[in-house]
Amino acid sequence: MKFSSSLIPATLIRRYKRFLADVTLETGDEVTVHTPNTGAMLGCAEPGSRVWLRHSGNPARKYPLGWELSTSETGTLIGVNTHLANQLVQEGIATGAIEELQGYESLRREVGYGDEGSRIDLLLQHAARPACYIEVKNVTLLRDAGVAAFPDAVSQRGSKHLRELMRLVPRGYRAVLLFCVQRADAEVIEPARDIDPVYADTLAMAVKQGVEVLAYRAEVSPTEIRLQTRLPLRLA
User: Fold this and answer.
1) Which CA distances in Å does 9 have to 6, 24, 49, 65, 98?
2) Which secondary-structure segment (H or E) carries 86?
3) I need a labelling partner for 83 at 20 to 30 A (CA). Which of 70, 99, 134, 139 fits?
4) Could you report the per-residue pLDDT of 132-186, keeping only the tens digit for each?
5) Going from the N-terminus, what domains does the chain have, and what CATH number goes with each?
């Protein structure tokens, strides 16, 4: 996915109220920007770090600038916009980068399903194959060197989605959880048990019951984000 306009570099002052952040532009102006990420953004929101913004192109918006990229302490770019994860996965399916999800005739987004009133991120369908339900999770947290982890805050919604996926398997459908890792320094992914032990236990149960777990790492730059490399899942 190429950014439609050039990103704007800035320095982070602080993030607050979940959806807001104050930054200093290279001109020296201090502005408030929208933060499209509901997580804790651990390791991605350090005051003084270099960030990248995108202009919405809508002058009517209260905060026309949105936060797209962060820079880790080691200089790795991190895609913090969680709204891009579905788009990145959809693009990865279309280009063939995600090999495990090829061979379907149609793709639909945000389709209602399940016993708990959920909406699946992506639904792949083919007349001769069982439908494939895909739940996408954006990953930005890196713990030890090379170890990405999810979630970065307690996620009751994440556990709910795993329960919904588990119910699909005995009904004959294909159920997939796909971690979209928006940073190039990850080599493996694992559940963040110390942050959300319920999610970690539910994930392990889902794997045992036939839910497929895929993780793909993105190459991130100020011009483009692209899913490229599959990462192994580590449950133990």
Assistant:
1) 10, 9, 11, 11, 31
2) helix 85-95
3) 99
4) 999 999 999 999 889 999 999 999 999 999 999 999 999 999 999 999 999 999 9
5) 8-79 (2.40.50.580), 82-230 (3.40.1350.60)
